[in-house]
Amino acid sequence: MKEKIRVITQIQSLRLRPEMYLSQPKATGFGILKGIIQTLSDTEHNSEKEIPESLHVQLLSDGAYCLTCDSPMLPTGTVEYLGVKQPAVIPLLLCLHVPGWGFLGFLPIMSALSEYLKIVSTEEGVSTCVETSRGGLVSPVSSQKSTKASGTILEYLPDYSLLEVQDLSPEEILERASRFPLRIPFNLTCERVERTEKSE
Questions:
Q1: Is pTM beyond 0.85 here?
Q2: Terminal Cα distance for the chain, rounded
Q3: Sorting pLDDT into bands at 50, 70 and 90, what band is 98?
């Protein structure tokens, strides 16, 4: 009897074992937020411009998270990928987590484990917008001019079909963040916001 071997994609691998990629015994929605904060705190593997001075977290009433910071989180420009020039963020979304890549290495995990993810990252007056759902692009990556110099708005809804709901207060999140392994080099604030629909 031949052994059956199942070939899975990189995104399927992330979704099959979320606890492994979030470094949690049980994967929770809070695990994604922890991953974002810790990878942004990695001063060794993020460039100076990628580390924000402040990060504000909103806990939305539908279970989503909205993060705002004053640094660009996504690369701009294009790269050649699979023989075609594509936005530089595309290869990052499709690869598995790469230790030592800072926040960008965590990007595919966040994308694969979110029911929806939207990032608008602005650098030098150009905004790059990425929207994904469970690891797949919802629409083509777009770029446009912006009056804002730099900064990022990131909103995501954890995929609660894979992750446990963990209803933490802003105070509990800040207290847990104070005990993260990496020291947070930016000002972290958090609040709860009543809202039932995701922002445009």
A1: yes
A2: 54
A3: low
Amino acid at 84: V
DSSP bridge partners of 154 = 67, 119
From residue 183, give the alpha-carbon distance in Å to each of 77, 122, 170. 31, 26, 19
Tokens of 153: 């708005």
Segment 108-139, tens digit of pLDDT: 899 999 999 999 999 988 999 999 999 989 99
> In sequence order, what are the residues at sequence separation of 6 or more whose Cβ sits closer than 8 angstroms to the Cβ of residue 47?
none
DSSP state of 37: H
State the DSSP code for 153.
Answer: E
Measured CA to CA in angstroms, residue 139 lies from 56, 78, 85, 98, 113 at distances of: 26, 17, 17, 25, 18
What's phi and psi for 123, nearest 5 deg? -140, 125
What class has domain 10-193?
alpha beta
